[in-house]
Structures are given as C-alpha cells and as structure tokens.
Here is the input.
Amino acid sequence: MTSPAPVPANVPASPLPMSAVAADENGSPITPVNVPRTGAPANPTAAVLASRFGVAVLRTEVIWGETTVFVTREALHDIVRFLHDEPSERYDYLVDVTAVEYRDGDRPLEVVWHLRALGHRRFLRLKVELPKRGALWVPSVIDIYSGADWLERECYDMFGIRFEGHPDLRRLLMWEQYKEGHPLRKDFPLRGRFSRSEQLKQALAADPEARYSMEELNIAEAFHSLPADMKQRLAERAAHGELEEGE
Amino acid sequence: MGLTSGTDSRLVQVDHSAQDGWVTTRLDFLVNWARAGSLWPMPFGTACCAIEFMATAASRYDLSRFGMERLSYSPRQADVLLCAGRVPLKLAPVLRRIYQQMPQPKWVISMGACASTGGMFDNYAVVQGIDTIIPVDVYVPGCPPRPEALIHGIMMLQKKVMQERLKDSTRHVEIDPDPASQLYIPPSRIDELSEPFGNSVHQTRSTP
Here is the structure.
C-alpha cells in the first residue's frame, strides 16, 4: 500500500497565488478528473487577454479542459510579452512552438505556442492562423524566451514559416543546403522531391564540419558566453583544482 | 579458434620433438587468424540496434569471446565499422568520413533492417541502406537483431576474414571518388577532420 507523501511542515509559502488551482487540505494540487470535451472552465488568462487586447484576440476554445486562444499575428508579440511579464500571469515556460497544416486545403496553417505558468500551474495555447496564399510569417518571441531559438528554427525548417526577428533562422533538422522544401507540409511527398541518387549525392556533398568545428565544441572557448552564475561556479572549482580535463 | 584444432590442423604442423617449438603454416593463414581473432569494432550506434549491440558486448553474450571487447571509439584504431541503426541523410557524410578515416584492412557490418535497407523508413530523411555510401561485408537482419543474430554475423565476418588471400591485390583497395566530383575529399582534409589523440597521432591516411 502506498500512502500520499507527507507534506513537511516547514515548506515556505509560495510567492504566487494558487487560488486558481483546485487543492486538497494539504495544499497539493488535485488533478482534474472527468473533464468534458467542451464546456470545461477556461483558463482565466483568456478573459484577461480578451479584455486587454480587444479585437486582437479572435476567439477562445476550451477542448478537454485546455484553453486555446486565437490571436492575430500582429498582436502576438505584445501578447506573449504581456503573458511573460505581467505578475498576475507570469507564463515563465515556453513549452513548444510548432505548426499545424490540415488536409483540407482551404483551412489556414496554424502556428501554435504552448505556454505554461509554473507558479500558477496554468497552461495556455496560443494560435495564429496563416492563410496559405499569404506570406507565411509570424513574429519571433526569442527576445522573450531564449528557448524559442531551436523551436522556431525547427518550425521554419519543417513548415517554411518565417519567424521575423529571429537572429539566426537556419534549418535545424535538415542540413542547411537542403533544397527539396519543407518536409512537414502536406504538399511534400513522403519520399522527397528528388530521386534517391540525387538526394544521396546532395547529402554527401554537404560539409558537416563547416559549422560544427572542434572549436565550437570546446567549452573553454565558449566560457565567455556562459551565464554569470555558471561562470562563477566554474571559476570556484578551477581555483580549488576540481575541474575535469577539458572543462 | 585454437591454431591446432579442428579444420585448422591440416594447415598447421607442430613439431613436438623439437625443443624450440617449431610451427609451420601458411603466412596468410596466420595473418588472417590473427586478424579474425582481434577485430576491434567501431560502434556507430544511432538507434535501438545499438542497445542490442550493448547487450551483445556485455557480460551475458560477451563479445570478448571473439576478441572484440575492445570497442574502438576512434576510427583510426578500428577494424570493423559496426553500423547499428538508421542513418539519416544528414548523417551520410559523417558515416562516410568515419569509414574513410579507418585504416586498411577494414570491414563493415550493417546491423539491422534500417542500416541494411532503410527498413520501415522509406521516406525523405533516411538513407536506404548504408551500402549506398560505404561497402558492406555482412548484413545482419532483424529489427533489431537479437544478440545471437549479431554474433552469427560476427562469426560470418570471421570466416570471411579467414578466407582472404594476401596475394589477392583487389582486396582492401579503396577507390577514391573522382577528384572533379563533389564527393572527393583530399586525404589531408580527412585527417584534419578528426583531431588525433592518444597513441593514434601517427596513424593518418595522408602520411602512412
């Protein structure tokens, strides 16, 4: 038999309000059960966004208890900035940036941002719809979340959606000279556009060391770009002679 | 694989009466015997086949019975390139360069369905068999192969090594691509791609 782990009495009070989360008598969150497909209560952030950004918030959906807010791409950057900075929201974790293309050719592409507020225990999904005939671009949120770097690069690689403002928008999964297009688009054939021999020829002609050199992998030369606290820890360990070889 | 047991006994004569312990045999048999008994593998594991390879190398199946317990993570000290798992097209030049950095004589085992044929990944991203990039000596089928299957493949490779003849000049000759083509890499460039380390600093392709 397992019993719930006892909660230590000296747990410091959380700096963030937990009022929005259902909790048991110990303050531990309760996982919601029997959530209906539609009609579950929306994330309170959705109402805040609708009142603050007005027409830029197009509509809100709640599916299986998860809230999706459709916004315009012009307002997206301000909205994410608000969600990240506002003390009552504080979405501090960008879980994923991805895109969806539907088989129905008339449906627009959707770019999806998954945001999580760890303190408030909230989850919010933002979507921007991009008509296929228009220019495929959305603003980059890399100045708000550094972790958006590779997420946006992958999304650009796979769907061809440009993230305006990204400082280094290169392909991530396919090699940089890849010429066949963007593989997760619906019009991309599963086996690619070129013949097998042509694909192999182009792949073998790629130079993997052009960017990933030994110097790039050497942490000693990357020292200046490390966060300050990590630099300090490494410097302390170096002073005591505790560093492994190569560190 | 003792020198004087089984079918080998026809090739090896031991003079028990001589105090110095004379053994007479054919030179290529002796060379092949030494090579086949100490094939150092370079594991190139990219997927679940590598997990089965780890199981094969670990104590229950014990690769050291075949003289292969010394996994060589430097291609310069390896005899067998053991490609375990699917190879994406982006990794194709990397695999090719690892093969080029290995010194002769060298052999390749293609482990599993994906490395041999592309397997179920008949798509834009995966190489349809590593024999389109590098020559392969033994294909091990399975998804992934059990350790017994890999050991069977290793024993097949050992038999193949034992059948080589030193006179055969076509064996272990590597034909470089046409220097005018995109596929050609100068030997000096291949050398500088991987920084020499350990006791392999003098083992380079451009200066044998």
